[in-house]
């Protein structure tokens, strides 16, 4: 590895040490449905976001709630203390499309209609509230 690549890799690694997040991959629901849920909690305080997700009646909210709990646990693991209410907020959360399963459905007159079973990846980062204000 060249010197420049090594230096940029080390800088990226150092920057990632201060990021606390979690990633959920290959969720078998469409990215559009997942984005509806993710938009509800973007920028919200972490424990308030958990409440929003808990009482949402969308199926995707169950998966995002579990992901948010995982991100909070990762923050607690790296900082070696429990998170307090009002301390963390959802810094970044986004949904990307994952590989699509393509199937065929029988249609009239010997034709076949294509079914695209979509899936997605969700990435969520939390951060401390007082750190972002500095």
CATH class equals Alpha Beta
Element order, helices and strands? Answer: HEHHHEEEEH
Low-confidence segments, given as residue ranges, are none
Q: What sort of overall outline do the alpha carbons produce when their principal axes are compared? A: flat
Under CATH, the topology is which? Ribosomal Protein L22, Chain A
Q: What's the total count of β strands?
A: 5
Q: What is the CATH architecture annotation?
A: Alpha-Beta Complex
Strand % is 25-35%
Q: What oligomeric state do these chains adopt?
A: single chain
Question: How would you concisely characterize the structure shown here?
Answer:
With 134 residues, this protein is α+β, with helices and mostly antiparallel strands. The chain is built from five helices and five strands; from the N terminus they run H-E-H-H-H-E-E-E-E-H. It has one domain (20-133): Ribosomal protein L22/L17 (Ribosomal Protein L22, Chain A).
């Amino acid at each position: 590895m060249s010197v420049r690549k090594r230096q940029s890799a080390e800088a990226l690694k150092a920057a990632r040490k201060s990021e606390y997040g979690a990633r959920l991959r290959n969720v078998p629901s469409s990215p559009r449905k997942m984005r509806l849920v993710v938009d509800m909690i973007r920028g919200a305080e972490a424990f308030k976001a958990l409440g929003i997700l808990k009482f949402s009646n969308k199926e995707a909210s169950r998966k995002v709630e579990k992901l948010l709990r995982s991100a909070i646990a990762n923050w607690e693991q790296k900082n070696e203390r429990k998170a307090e209410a009002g301390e963390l907020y959802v810094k970044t959360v986004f949904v990307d499309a994952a590989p699509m399963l393509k199937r065929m459905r029988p249609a009239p007159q010997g034709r076949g209609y294509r079914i695209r079973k979509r899936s997605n990846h969700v990435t969520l980062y939390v951060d401390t509230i007082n750190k972002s204000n500095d």
